[in-house]
Design goal:
3 domains, alpha+beta, two-stranded antiparallel sheet, 4-stranded mixed beta sheet, single chain, 340 residues, Pemi-like Protein 1, Chain: D, Translation Initiation Factor IF3
Amino acid sequence: MDFRKVQVTGGNSFVVSLPKTWVTEVGLRPKDAVAIMVQPDSSLLIVPSKDIREVQKSEATLEAGQGLDRDTLLRHFISYYLAGYDIIKVTLGRPDSATRGFIREGIRRKLVGVEIIEETPSAILTQCLSGYVDLPLKKALERMSIIAAGMLSDSVSFLGGVGKGMAEEVIERDDEVDRFYHFLLRQLNIAVRDRSVIQEIGLTSTRDCLGYRLVVKSTERVADHAAGIAAEAENLQALNEAATKKIQDLALSSRKVFESSVAALLRLDVRLAEEAIARSKEVVQLEEKISREVLAPRMSGSQVASARLVLEGIRRVAEYGADVSEIAIDLTVREPQAVQ
């Protein structure tokens, strides 16, 4: 730690010299300007102002000729998107309309704010828009959680023969949740790398970024479980009305835990978070009871397996909700101040 004395110039201005090694590393010269931002913990963040946006402009190129098949190519594209690259180019080496179509469709289904600005028979050039001004992190998380919670309710509505054949629609909505998931991870990754972005996306510190990173993953997993329940629903359409009602009521309780947890996080409401954690434990106990009541000897092996997966998925949603509530409680505690 480098301690420097505060000096007074002109009677009104307080001055602290900058470390020479840092000045050299960032390329500052005499008369260059720096941006100074006050942080929530009363510290100062000093950033070279020789156009922060220009520093953020970054490009990456993916080459299919490096042995990447189209699935791997899309995964690598998403990785660069999450890392915060602004311009991503995919080169195929030779004209390949099938791979271009696959990448284009994957971008459309999985990512938010990516525009294809140029396309040739053997390449795709994309630009990733930051998006955190038009869609702040907390608003995006709220929308993501609403979709995931709705998927859970709709997935259990197909049990007992209701809405037969419509489970595919719920599964397709998982792509919409994935789009928000990747978008939010991109925002958080950029914020961790550039602390000046943290307040712009609606958070207060890098600690918030870690907490929200876990919340975003939990929400994405809720949608995955809802899609899994929808996939098993068709195999359980022979369930009687009483069993169907018990499972649907359990799903409703689990959904309420998850929704309350997200609300507790967005409001930093400790009381609401504690209530959600208590209700999640009730859901776990009720799930064990319903498992014993619903799983009957007359059910086929595949039906028993499907019923177990459905009940487990519903329970896991409540448990993910409890995880979100715990993070909400953690974020209400102020970070310790440095000892003077």
